[in-house]
Design goal:
The chain is of the alpha+beta class. It has a single domain, classed as Roll (Bacterial Protein-export protein SecB), CATH 3.10.420. Helices cover 24% and strands 40% of the residues. The chain has helices at residues 77-84, 95-117, 132-135; strands at residues 8-20, 32-42, 47-59, 62-75, 91-93, 140-142. The strands form 2 sheets. It has a 4-stranded antiparallel sheet. Strands 5-6 form a two-stranded antiparallel ribbon. It is elongated, with a radius of gyration of 17 Å.
Length: 144
């Protein structure tokens, strides 16, 4: 496996969930986009995962389009042991690296959304530019 200068490789991408819900869709009205980001760790495999979930709504709590994507980042073993693993037994992903992972995952989700909705009425709904810094406000710490 080839790692970049930051000591990780983007090794996997999967669509966790996708749904278009016709009964919740209205042609008119303001669209609300609900965005969530989360992270996971696999200690044995030296992997950090980043999940992003997007829900498009025109009616409150009734999404008409849902997409959740998971990206997998393989951390070089020595970097995982020396930088991610902490002395107290926790695992840390610095805020800057977590933001970088989230940016890569959101960008991937944007392409997945386009591919999944191509040729449908939902293709006009694009993921806008998202300030991921507002979604990831601090270091990500796993206490296992």
């Amino acid at each position: 496996m080839t790692y970049n200068q930051l000591g990780f490789a983007f090794t996997g991408l999967r669509t966790v969930s996708f749904a278009s819900i016709d009964v919740a869709y209205k042609k008119t009205g303001t669209v609300n986009l609900i965005s969530k980001v989360g992270f996971g760790v696999d200690i044995d495999e030296h992997v950090i995962s980043c999940n992003v979930k997007f829900s498009f709504e025109k009616k409150v709590n009734q999404p008409f389009l849902i997409l959740e994507v998971q990206a997998i980042f393989d951390i070089e073993k020595n970097d995982f042991i020396n930088k991610v693993k902490q002395g107290d037994g926790s695992y840390l992903v610095s805020k800057g690296l977590a933001i970088h992972f989230a940016v890569l995952t959101v960008g991937s989700a944007r392409g997945i959304l386009h591919a999944k909705t191509e040729g449908t009425v939902y293709n006009e709904y694009l993921l806008p530019t998202i300030d991921v810094k507002q979604m990831v406000e601090e270091d990500v710490v796993f206490r296992l």
